[in-house]
């Protein structure tokens, strides 16, 4: 238990830093970067999309390395690459430099964000990693809460270039030592059988059913990341469309982050003893239920929508780590997780643009697209539950 707690704290704090300095960086710095290098904010976000595609490409390779050598060396290397990418971004003088820096950042994101952390936890603790995965997401759930204000303060005091350099330094003086303190993979090799000793016997599905399950899980994860990213980009505009004031739209959209953390707390405190598929299916219904509230009650249900969406999204983040462990076991978890997340990263890269088109054409009606996707994801998980019972 103590070993899992240590792993949770080390990975949780390191993940908070990694997310705050990468995924949540463009929201604060994109305009300033664009002005300085002579391009548009949309071009900066386009470079960020390239980083997401790079992370999709590198994810399976990083996962395979974690399966073979453990997560510590891979995560340490990701801190170095994060620092290099942020330092390169701080020196950008033209749009091509920004694109190249974010491409480097994409390599770090593919080997240093949730998928790598989850694979590290499974490599160390095997089938007992569910609570560790939940704990990691609890810590990192505050990445935007910490990252956005800190980045804004750094940008206001030393400029966006200085902010990037500070984040690069934090990876070297905080993130790297935290990951270096993780247990070595050799400890996992000598762990008891409930960890990683007999992973083949702990996969919930037979090999002939695993291919179909992998397709369904990849679809569910893609829906989760598409909806999460689309809402992060367009939720205030959607709330304005249902009649909320600007101040109310921004304030209500800000509730999504705390709601995600609340969802993870619910998973940790109450659903940890329940079957992972039950909590995942409930989570996929959060966004559709919120959309239904908006459709029935308009702007008066805006807060309910934000809370339901956030609760579901927070629990689904955990499911991305726990469901592959349930269905396929601990052996080869990292590489398999990397492959399962490739479609999710690809659709995530295009989500702001594609959902933006839907909002321009349909207005608030665009929510029905994401709501239907959530319902189909729930049906996919129901199908997997039926396969398990059989």
UniProtKB/TrEMBL annotation:
Keywords: Cell membrane, Membrane, Transmembrane, Transmembrane helix
Record's keyword annotation contains Cell membrane: yes
MF terms in GO: transmembrane transporter activity
Pfam families: MFS_1
Major facilitator superfamily (MFS) profile domain segment(s): 7-389
Any one GO cellular component localisation term in the record: plasma membrane
Subcellular location: Cell membrane
Membrane-spanning ranges: 44-62, 74-93, 99-121, 133-154, 160-178, 213-232, 238-257, 278-297, 303-327, 339-359, 365-386
Cited InterPro entries: MFS (IPR011701), MFS_dom (IPR020846), MFS_Efflux_Transporters (IPR050189), MFS_trans_sf (IPR036259)
UniProt keyword annotation of Transmembrane present: yes
UniProt topology in membrane: Multi-pass membrane protein
Protein name: MFS transporter
Organism expressing this protein natively: Xenophilus arseniciresistens
């Amino acid at each position: 238990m103590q070993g899992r707690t240590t792993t949770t704290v080390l990975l949780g704090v390191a993940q908070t830093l990694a997310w705050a300095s990468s995924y949540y960086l463009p929201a604060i710095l994109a305009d300033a970067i664009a002005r300085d290098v002579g391009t548009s904010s949309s071009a900066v976000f386009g470079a960020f999309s390239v980083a997401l595609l790079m992370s999709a490409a590198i994810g399976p390779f990083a996962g395979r390395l974690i399966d073979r050598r453990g997560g510590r060396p891979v995560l340490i290397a990701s801190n170095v690459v994060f620092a290099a990418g942020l330092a390169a971004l701080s020196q950008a003088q033209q749009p091509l430099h920004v694109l190249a820096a974010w491409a480097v950042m994409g390599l770090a994101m593919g080997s240093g964000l949730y998928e790598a952390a989850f694979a590290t936890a499974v490599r160390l603790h095997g089938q007992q990693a569910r609570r560790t995965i939940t704990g990691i997401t609890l810590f990192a759930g505050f990445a935007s809460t910490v990252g956005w204000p800190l980045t804004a303060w750094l940008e206001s005091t030393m400029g966006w270039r200085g902010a990037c350099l500070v984040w690069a330094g934090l990876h070297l003086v905080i993130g790297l030592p935290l990951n270096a303190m993780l247990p070595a993979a050799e400890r996992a090799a000598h762990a008891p059988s409930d960890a990683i000793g007999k992973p083949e016997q702990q996969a919930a599905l037979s090999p002939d059913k695993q291919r179909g399950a992998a397709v369904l899980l990849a679809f569910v994860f893609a829906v989760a990341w598409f909806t999460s990213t689309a809402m992060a980009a367009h939720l205030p505009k959607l709330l304005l469309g249902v009649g909320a004031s600007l101040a109310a739209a921004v304030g209500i959209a800000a509730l999504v982050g705390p709601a995600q953390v609340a969802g993870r707390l619910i998973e940790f405190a109450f659903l940890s003893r329940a079957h992972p598929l039950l909590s995942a299916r409930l989570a996929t219904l959060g966004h559709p239920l919120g959309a239904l509230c908006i459709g029935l009650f308009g702007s008066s249900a805006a807060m309910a929508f934000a809370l339901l969406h956030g609760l579901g999204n927070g629990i689904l983040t955990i499911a991305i780590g726990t469901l592959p462990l349930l269905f396929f076991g601990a052996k080869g978890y990292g590489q398999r997780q990397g492959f399962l997340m490739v479609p999710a990263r690809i659709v995530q890269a295009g989500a702001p643009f594609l959902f933006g088109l839907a909002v321009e054409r349909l207005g608030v009606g665009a929510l029905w697209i994401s709501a239907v996707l959530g319902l189909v994801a729930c049906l996919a998980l129901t199908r997997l539950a039926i396969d398990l019972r059989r």
